[in-house]
Amino acid sequence: MILSAAISGLAARPVRVEATERPAAEPISIAGLGEAAAREARVRVQAALASTGESSPQGVVIRCEGASSTSATALDLAIALAAAVPRPSRRIAAFADLSLAGELRPVRGVLVAVEALRGLADAIIVAPDNASEAALIEGAPVVVARTLADALRFARGDDCACTRVDQPPRLAPPTASRNCDLSDVRGLPVARRALEVAAAGGHNLLLVGPPGAGKTMLARRLPGLLPRLTYPEALEVTRVHSVAGLNVGGGLVSSRPFRAPHHSTTPPGIVGGGAPTARPGELSLAHHGVLFLDELPEFSRSALESLVDPLATGEVTLARASGTVRYPASALVVASMLACPCGHAPSRRCRCSAADRARYASRVPPALLDLFDLRVTLEPSMLGEPQDAREPERSAAVAARVLAARTRAAKEPPPADLLDQSARTTLAPLNGQTARRALRVAKTLMVLDGETAIAHAHLDEALALTGGHGQGSS
Length: 474
Prior knowledge:
By secondary structure, the protein is an alpha/beta fold. Helices cover 34% and strands 17% of the residues.
């Protein structure tokens, strides 16, 4: 009996692959998979076994207990080992694809598969390209086989046929991008401040302005302001990317993700889905990082509406006939849009009517718009406009303030308990939604400034950044 695993969302369940000899029409018959999946797996396994020079099994029936058609490819190695070595020398688990020439190929979801198999086997065989990812699971006996022939020798007791994988460093330093530093942004003081506030308080940010105003440039610099991923956060991000098939050949994802889907992306592409298995979408791939939605009104209405609940709850729930799959969705969202359909507002070049602008703005569902605490209007820098002679702050300096502010904010009481008397007077006439949004941002401004109470100045700046009394400009 050989163990393997079947992936379901961010988890995996063990699969028992057992073989027995019975009269059968095929040399190898496979039960437990769908008809098409079983037929294709049989062809791959028979070709791979033939490439090793093994005598072809005759009348072998393979039963895959706990498998599904979606996991058939990753079961190839386990099926081949069970067919050729019915009684292995030790408890073996295998999770790899097989080429027709008998080489082990990488598969998605190795991280969660090894998590499920740890403690159940004396050795877990994976493909070479999956080794660094599989080794992230502490205490898992991961070994690498390059070919099916090596795996067969190992199953029969030859310890030298496979290579044991050592654990990598617990958390490698993140890869820094020299091309996305905040010091590249000249001017735009309100927008820079909004980025810092968004990073410190986890506030979603909406940037409004014409083409060339710097919206994309600002968004791409936000990940560099966020604190470094902790090991549990990095492991969670790696788990999502592994299941999506984006981490093949890689190890621990140590940098904050940045995802920028095109506005033609479908709802399943945004929040997850697909067939035969529901995979994570762009929102989950941006977990613990930044999701940038450029030209927000150009996304389909259904795609934007699909974001509302996951952003509010921090989780994507996808119900399928085979079961319910959940993916994490705790991402910081930055969106950009024009002020009007032509993009020239508020300059004299704009010829859009008030009705045109209203129709354009109405493409964004109000429920989604409510999730953006920060709303900043940008204007393009005029040619010849004098620039500040001082060198702009680098991302590292801002990131240090953000980290300190996050640490302080976690220890502070709710923002309503931090208001001084002048701030209470300013807040009194505001409606509920505006007041709650302003309070959240004001608390972030307070901790960034190192103060112990929310003052009138914090609330006034918060109202400017949230659009509470006219949108902030830069």
